[in-house]
Amino acid sequence: HTSAAAGVAGVIKMVMALRHGMLPATLHVDTPSPHVDWASGEVELLTEAQKWPVSERVRRAGVSSFGISGTNAHVILEEAPTEALNPEAGAQAPGTGPAVVPVLVSARSDAALRAQADRLRALLAARPELSLLDVGFSSVTTRAQLERRAAVVASDRAGLLTGLESLAAGEPVDGVVEGSSVGGKAVFVFPGQGAQWVGMAVELWDSSSVFAESMAACGEALSEFVDWRLEDVLRSVDGAPSLERVDVVQPALWAVMVSLARLWRSYGVEPSAVVG
Description:
Layout: H1 8-20, E1 22-23, E2 50-51, E3 60-66, E4 72-78, E5 101-107, H2 110-126, H3 132-141, E6 148-154, H4 157-169, E7 176-180, E8 187-189, H5 202-207, H6 209-222, H7 230-234, H8 246-266, E9 273-275
Parallel strand pairs: 8-9
Antiparallel strand pairs: 1-2, 3-4, 5-6, 6-7
Helix pairs in contact: 2-4, 6-8
């Protein structure tokens, strides 16, 4: 279960609908329920995406998330106010933005990083109307982030040009930080009930000695508390209880997840965190 994150997909979906002015079609509905009088009232199912144009009324939407126990959380979303774009944004008024803005530069090598910094410096020198905030935003959202990276932190246009010039020359200066990206950290996620299926983990049991040894150890640990064999359940042996039983599936999933974790660790993958 997603716990505190339950319903967030619906919120994201509706935020995107507000942003793009498009109501998405209702999913997984082939035949509307006969228990609802669709002919009267203003409620209808959308069989296809429909435009949601801006009008004098503020657009609002409700998103409900129903818990398994009957708890209902309801969120009302309202479209964000529109902001008029200022074509003269380059001359930012004092006190209207952050004190400093980081501008990111990246490349695959040191030489390419310095060349990229020099190109950016030349572009900004030729385009004085470009806003410092816009340059910083675009450096993060519109450029690929490659292995060699640098951040030029500046409070004004002159500081940014000076920082880029120093970066291009390979000269250390305050406000310029260089480094190399490192790989992301691994997190092991243990799913809850509902992730199981008949025959789950059988192929791994037969092909991986590390996985098989861990499953055997888990089965032995469980034997003191249950009257069934873990391997029999996963292989659907005649007389074994159903994997759909709550008192069976929970320990079975635990055993599979522990054994998968041990398998990954045998390959050298160590988690930085475990959730589930």
